[in-house]
């Protein structure tokens, strides 16, 4: 499957909103809910404007994943960008239910890592629930190394969830 990444902006905000609403139940099976406010279109546009402002300040990089038909298949992003002592970011991604199991996350993370190098990011971290084998495979296929485990990382549906932490260095640092 051919995919492409495009930066999150106001031009694709409606498509992204529709994707999030369509996949809300799917995402909330695996992650804590973002709350009803996130799914109110006016409030969502405020969130998108805030993200765009963060991107312009170099605090994050947010991308939409589109499949070969132009439909949004998911999102991939770098958040919490820090410049000291080396330029680091935290990787996140989510794939819509209709697009799971097709290798899209692996391809999207690969493309995103190329963009991260263009932005001079040097160290990328990522976390995934210990039960999320598919996400762990995505990270490992993209050269991430498991570096730790956090117990009781978050609560989901009344259950405590543990998390694995992965890291990948993009450029040699001295």
Structure report:
The chain is of the alpha+beta class and 174 residues long. The protein has 5 helices and 7 strands; from the N terminus they run βαααβββαβαββ. The chain has helices spanning 13-22, 24-28, 41-56, 104-118, 133-141; strands at residues 4-7, 61-66, 72-82, 88-95, 123-129, 145-156, 159-169.
Shape: globular
Radius of gyration: 16 Å
Count, helices = 5
Q: Supply the helix-strand structural class.
A: alpha+beta
Mean pLDDT: 91
**SSE pattern:** EHHHEEEHEHEE
Our measurement of the CA-to-CA distance between the termini, rounded to an integer number of angstroms, reads 38 Å
Care to count the β-strands? 7
Strand order of the largest sheet: 1-2-3-4-5-7-6
Helix proportion: 25-40%
Strand content: 25-35%
Unreliable stretches: none
Largest sheet features: 7 strands, mixed
List keywords for this structure.
alpha+beta; 174 residues; 5 helices; 7-stranded mixed sheet
SSE topology sketch:
Layout: E1 4-7, H1 13-22, H2 24-28, H3 41-56, E2 61-66, E3 72-82, E4 88-95, H4 104-118, E5 123-129, H5 133-141, E6 145-156, E7 159-169
